[in-house]
Design a protein that fits this description.
Elements: H1 2-27, H2 32-45, E1 87-88, H3 89-110, H4 114-133, E2 138-143, H5 146-149, E3 165-169, H6 175-191, H7 197-216, H8 221-225, H9 240-254, H10 257-266, H11 281-294, H12 301-314, E4 324-325, E5 331-332, H13 339-359, E6 363-365, E7 368-370, H14 372-386, H15 411-414, H16 431-435, H17 466-469, H18 473-487
Antiparallel strand pairs: 1-2, 2-3, 4-5, 6-7
GO molecular function: cellulase activity
Catalytic activity: Endohydrolysis of (1->4)-beta-D-glucosidic linkages in cellulose, lichenin and cereal beta-D-glucans
Domain Glycoside hydrolase family: 32-482
Length: 491
């Protein structure tokens, strides 16, 4: 019968798929500890502000030293989000939250890289604190006009574009960016709690105030700021997920019942099949499920169920899977900067696997039994692919392995450094001969993870192809945790 044939074909396909997955897993054995060190070094290359002594990415120097001046405030510091020279606070705050979560979950496995992780976090939180406290009633959420900046190809050290300052307020709300900022500050407060109690206290107190603002003045920053953030970092998922995310992190940091009550009022039953700087539901559900699994708190069972529903939509051999995989085994979510979704989801895979192991827990996706090893093996598959276990044998982390992207879409990397070319390169000066050159970038942005291959496992290594060749802070931030997880296994 036709139905029997279809079912047989379906299970044969699953057998082939699972076989190819295990084949890649057994062959992949990258140096995770080296990759971890490099993934953190990348953040030095994204620094805005005054570069400190000891900077290892030596081709970078001071930039954005007058950021905030147009608003008569000091907004120096923080990170450029990707290959441009703009500071977008929504992805920067998510980057900070993920780095902090990685330190909290995997700090014991980081070894000598834990201080470097804290340094990467603090470079962001020092800036986010300025944004939250500089002017009463305002939260600054970005510096630099993206529409002007994206027409230029110049080093951050040479910026001559307007450094417009953007903010949200009661009259022009931004619950999404405020909720994420609160999450970042609350998560970071936990990272510094044992090593710098005063700083930790400042982070948490500020997180509470910013989150109160997010809750009391609800609205999307996309509506308030328009073309200043859209389409670059438009809040496509709305702001409710950031309220859930912020409340989740404040609950973790305080144990205050008010955040449990807020979570109940917000609902949060959404079960997406993605996790990113824009959509935080899956991350919140995994973090909240920790209480159900590790503390046996039945009040959080619903979050455990939604976290597991998410996993069932990711696992390739699950009957509920809605996730595409390339022939080489890479998770493929969206064509533009796909590795941002791979790294973020991989973080959730390793973290939920960790919780499951501690609780000796398993669950089912229909008839499929899911064990901690199921999630860990899929996570390893993704990490190994990024680090070079793939059809092209290319590492998508710059400077890792022998074969990695040489023409990344990144202004500072693609233009000669100030040391080798002291003359300023203006807004249009970088296009010829640098942007359009086929030569490799003169400066290696060590540790940068690019947008990654296409759905056919192909990668052209083309500087103008930003959707595949541009690195971003939030791609790296989510990978730090899984790299620490696996490097702790292979010391």
């Amino acid at each position: 019968m036709a139905t029997t044939t279809n079912v047989s074909t379906f299970f044969f396909f699953l057998f082939l798929l699972s076989s190819s997955f295990s084949f890649n897993i057994t062959r992949g054995n990258p140096n995770y500890r080296d990759a971890l060190a490099k993934s953190l070094l990348f953040f030095q290359g994204q620094r805005s502000g005054r570069i400190p002594n000891g900077q290892q990415i030596a081709w970078r120097s001071n930039s954005g030293l007058y950021d905030g001046e147009l608003a008569h405030v000091d907004l120096t510091g923080g990170y450029y989000d990707a290959g441009d020279n703009v500071k977008f606070n929504l992805p920067m705050a998510f980057t900070t939250t993920m780095l902090s979560w990685g330190a909290l979950e995997y700090g014991a496995r980081m070894g000598s890289e834990l201080p470097n992780t804290r340094a990467a976090i603090r470079w962001a939180t020092d800036y986010l604190l300025k944004c939250a406290t500089a002017t009463p009633g305002k939260l600054y959420v970005g510096v630099g006009d993206p529409n002007v900046d994206h027409k230029c190809w110049e080093r951050p050290e040479d910026m001559d574009t307007v450094r417009t300052v953007y903010s949200v307020s009661a009259a022009n709300p931004g619950s999404d960016v405020a909720g994420e900022t609160a999450a970042a500050l609350a998560a970071a407060s936990l990272v510094f709690r044992r090593v710098d109690r005063k700083y930790s206290g400042l982070l948490l107190a500020t997180a509470k105030k910013v989150f109160q603002f997010a809750v009391e003045h609800r609205g999307s920053y996309s509506d308030s700021l328009g073309s200043a953030v859209c389409p670059f970092y438009c809040s496509y998922s709305g702001y409710k997920d950031e309220l859930v995310w912020g409340a989740t992190w404040l609950l973790r940091a305080t144990n205050d019942v008010q955040y449990i009550n807020l979570l109940k009022s917000l609902g949060g039953d959404d079960v997406p099949d993605i996790f990113s700087w824009d959509n935080k539901y899956a991350g919140a559900h995994v973090l909240l499920s920790r209480r159900a699994l590790l503390n046996n708190d039945k009040n959080f069972d619903s979050y455990k169920q939604t976290a597991e529903s998410f996993m069932c939509r990711i696992l390739p051999n699950s009957p509920y899977s809605s996730t595409q995989y390339t022939q080489g085994g890479l998770m493929f979510k969206l064509p533009q900067s796909n590795l941002q979704y791979v790294t973020s989801i991989t973080f959730l895979l390793t973290t939920y696997s960790k919780y499951m192991s501690a609780a000796k827990h398993t669950f089912n996706c229909g008839g499929l039994l899911v064990t901690p090893a199921s999630l860990k093996n899929l996570a390893k598959q993704q990490v190994d692919y990024i680090l070079g276990v793939n059809p092209l044998k290319m590492s998508y982390m710059v400077g890792f392995g022998r074969n990695f992207p040489k023409r990344i879409h990144h202004r500072g990397s693609s233009l000669p450094s100030k040391a080798s070319h002291p003359q300023a390169i203006g807004c249009d000066g970088g296009f010829q001969p640098f942007f359009y050159s086929f030569n490799p970038n003169p400066n290696i942005l060590t540790g940068a993870v690019v947008g990654g291959p296409n759905q056919n496992d192909g990668f052209p290594d083309d500087r103008s192809d930003y959707s595949h060749s541009e690195p971003a802070t939030y791609i790296n931030a989510a990978l730090v945790g899984p790299l620490a997880f696996f490097s702790g296994k292979t010391k």
